[in-house]
Amino acid sequence: MEFKQIESFVTVAQKKSFTKAADTLFMSQPAVTSNIQKLEKELGIKLIDRKAKNITLTEGGNIFYRYAVEMINLCAQAEYSLNEYNNNIKGTIEIYASTIPEQYLLPYIVKGFNDIYPLVLFSIRHKDSKEVVDEILSGKINFGFVGAKYPSEALQYIDFYDDTLVLIASPQKNYISDSITINKLAGEKIIIREEGSGTRHLIENALKKKRLHLNMFKSEIICDSLESIKKMVALDLGISFVSDIAVKCEVTSGYLNKYTIEDLDLHRHFSLVFSNNRNFSPVEEKFKDFVRSWNWDQIFH
């Protein structure tokens, strides 16, 4: 069993494509295929279902995948230790992030970490909070940044930013006070995020505590783009609830008005989420510690 065979298998499993895996590993597709075939022959079991429309792992493939990732991480730890000995820390950190962390918070964290470890590379992809957690649980990714917590004994969350949702409305719609009650909004049109979004999850739970539901609003526009939501609100197509950090510029410029809902608990934490059942590479351990100790006062105050 050779390392390049294990690496090929793990990369195909993560990318769900032989072509993308080959590009990632700077290999030809036939070479990647050959590596996996040799691995399957040595193990005496099929690892990948090639008959399916999309690349999927067999039951045996899923079992081996967990060990294969551990083997790669152990190799990375050995390489890291030698690099650290030579004062040359490097590696790649892959992250899935929901909308607000990805757009408004993660860039500062990446910049701060890169200032200390300039040879570390990042791969960042957008998913909603539920998708991020599902990918962590499946073992496809090590780190996620989310705005909603989904309880599981297999997961650990590190809170790194306190957030509050605010009501945003077009300047054409002037409420009397900057602070209003939720019942004042009954019958309004609302523009809201998709199922699986941490923002929507928080709104639905807050309404539920008041024995209310989204059907208290006149109609819904469902949109997975925060920028589109802000644009539609500015055009007076409806109201919406968004993170305060996401509309600072628009409110300051007068493009949007914001209000607090005095009788709804719309506070939450943004968190780094990862699996308790995973051995992390040394550079990933450094990143966890960095996020845990991050101080936002130096950025926003």
Please tell me about this protein's structure.
- Helix content is 44%, strand content 22%.
- The strands form three sheets. Strands 3, 4, 5, 6, 7, 10, 11 and 12 form an eight-stranded mixed sheet that branches.
- Among the domains are: 1-73, Arc Repressor Mutant, subunit A (Orthogonal Bundle), CATH 1.10.10.10; 161-268, D-Maltodextrin-Binding Protein, domain 2 (3-Layer(aba) Sandwich).
- With 301 residues, the protein is of the alpha/beta class.
- The mean pLDDT is 90.
- Helix 7 (198-209) links the parallel strand 8 (189-192) and strand 9.
- The chain has eleven helices and twelve strands.
Describe the SSE topology.
Layout: H1 3-15, H2 18-25, H3 29-43, E1 48-49, E2 56-57, H4 59-85, E3 90-97, H5 99-116, E4 119-126, H6 129-138, E5 143-146, E6 155-169, E7 179-180, E8 189-192, H7 198-209, E9 219-222, H8 226-234, E10 240-243, H9 248-253, E11 257-261, E12 267-275, H10 282-292, H11 297-300
Parallel strand pairs: 3-4, 3-5, 7-11, 8-9
Antiparallel strand pairs: 1-2, 5-12, 6-10, 6-11, 6-12
Helix pairs in contact: 1-2, 1-3, 1-4, 2-3
